[in-house]
Amino acid sequence: MNPSEPTPRFDVRITSDSHFAWIRTRMALERTLMAWVRTGVALIGFGFTIVPFCQRLGEMPGVAPARRPQAPRDLGLALIGAGVLALVVSGLQYRQIVHYLWSNEFKPLAGMKAKEMKAVYAQSPVMIVLAAVTLIGLFAFFAVLFRMV
User: pTM value?
Assistant: First the structure.
């Protein structure tokens, strides 16, 4: 061993057990990101819905005027912003961990050639869904911000 080379953190053995453990880890990562996407969608949806609901509630006969009429709008913006922020942070974390799983250290465990690995890494359906929901969340945020609802 060359003293200038860093010592590996652990020994990677190429066995069927370690290959399937790598796959389970990868799938767990996908499930975790999908849970974050569901959470982001719920926050964005609730934030977008609360604004018109509270506006219509205030327009009903017999309802006292609100003390803070902008509060539902601010709450909606906060919820939508939290949903978009959760999506962005979870997407960045996902990419970081996937990049680690596809590193040279684990290439033998993945069981794919370099070209196949790049194609799979670049075209993750979860990331496409994440990007779409993030764009929808940004649209909802600006729609509420500029009162397009």
Answer: 0.78
